[in-house]
Amino acid sequence: MSLPEEAYVAALSSIYGFGYKTVSSFIKCFGSAGAVWKAPEGELKSRGYSEALVERFISERKKINVGKMFEDIQGQGVTLLNIFEGEYPRELKLVANPPVLLYVKGVLPRDCLMKIAVVGTRRPTVYGTKFARKIASDLARQNICIVSGMARGIDTSAHKGAIDVGGRTLAVLGCGVDVVYPTENRKLALEIQEHGALISEFPLGTPPDKKNFPARNRIISGLSSGVVVVEAPARSGALITADFALDQGREVFAVPGPVTSKNSEGCNRLIKDGAKLVEDVKDILEDLWDVSTAEVMTATRLQKPDQEFNLDRKTKEILSLLKGGPVFPDDLCTHAGLSPAELNIVITKLELNGLVAKSGGRIFAVDNN
Fold first, then answer.
1. Sign of the alpha-carbon torsion through 299, 302, 306, 312
2. How many CB atoms within 10 Å of residue 302?
3. Is there a single domain that holds both residue 121 and residue 269?
4. I need a labelling partner for 89 at 20 to 30 A (CA). Which of 2, 40, 101, 148 fits?
5. 3-class state of residue 357 by DSSP
6. Cα→Cα distances 215→91, 223, 340, Å
7. DSSP for residue 275
8. 26 with 122, same domain?
9. pLDDT over 90, % of the chain
């Protein structure tokens, strides 16, 4: 039977060690993932790849029934998004070593103002649990999608906070999207699918192995405009997510805690190192947008995502200013003659329509060609 391209991308990316660089190199060389998969052994060896790489591919290819794999994926109600197609999240394409393929169970929200990650320890205090749930609810009320990892503790509270107010939430997993981990979050996993999606780069059936979680964390931060760490001891997966966020040019926020609490050691250190101290939702929005919470909410209400829209003179001017590369919002205000609130409305509209994105506190034009 004829299989779509994403079926072959799934097969290629399921081979251990076949990450973005290897898969994209093969596809560029052969023209498509399907052509790579069907290429004769002699042709594979003639394209300049190492003998070890080719031999491993040929060996693994024999073990994989692409049709059966794709049938199982469809049977689970899972959507495949590969990095070579338009539906793949634009912000994730910009990170180093992006996942080749995303398995999605649910629907990625397209109408949110932005995505914010809320992460922390699996063993939170009552203070941390309540704060995570409240900050997630407050962000979700303003049309912000909450991203987390569905782990015990802070992650669970963050997802629940978004769901409490009917908001959007995404759970990035360190296992297959058909594997519920931890098992007590089975009901939560279903609720997340109703309000967003479960996401993973790992094939169906992949167990929650310890080595998968750092890779998972880079996706959590990569999808988000900023990462909020609520509680984290000195050694914590949440701090790994914060490190990825810094490397990716995302904003890092931390909730302060008592100096006598081990759960606050990581957050307090982040604040010492320059992370934004968070007491409530205004600290996050004002840092990301340099405007008041009320102005952000106004922009959210005014703008709805459109498939197509007419660009007015000022919007065209903003896009023209961004052609030279990333620009800080203050500089855009100066050159365009706009107030921060006026600029925010224009940028929100452009971002929702996929024409601009933000990284490292700056705004840049997205190449859609």
1. negative
2. 10
3. yes
4. 2
5. strand
6. 16, 13, 36
7. P
8. no
9. 68
Q: What is the pLDDT of residue 296?
A: 46
Assigned domain for 132 exists: yes
Structure tokens at 185: 């979050």
pLDDT digits (tens, 9 = 90+) for 313-353: 888 888 888 876 778 888 888 888 888 878 888 888 787 77
Full residue range of the structural domain in which residue 26 is found:
1-75
Residues 304 and 259 in one domain: no
Q: Residues 6 or more apart from 253 whose CB is under 8 A from it?
A: 226, 227, 228, 229, 275, 276, 277, 278, 283, 284, 287
Model pLDDT, residue 100: 95
Q: What is the predicted pLDDT for the residue at 105?
A: 98
Coil, strand or helix: which one is 176?
coil
Query: Bridge-partner residues for 103, per DSSP?
Result: 80, 200
Strand 196-200 and strand 169-172: the pairing is: parallel
CB 44 within 8 A of CB 57: yes
d(CA 327, CA 292) in angstroms, rounded, equals 20
Helix (H) or strand (E) holding 266: helix 265-272
Based on the domain organization, do 300 and 261 belong to the same domain? no
How many domains in the chain? 3
Point out the least confidently predicted range of 69-73, 284-288, 354-358: 354-358
pLDDT tens digits along 198-246: 999 999 999 999 999 999 999 999 999 999 999 999 999 999 999 999 9
Shared-domain flag, residues 120 and 37: no
Instruction: Give the DSSP letter of residue 304.
Output: -
Q: Which amino acid is at 289?
A: W
Specify whether the backbone of 80 is left (phi greater than 0), alpha (psi in -120 to 50) or beta. beta
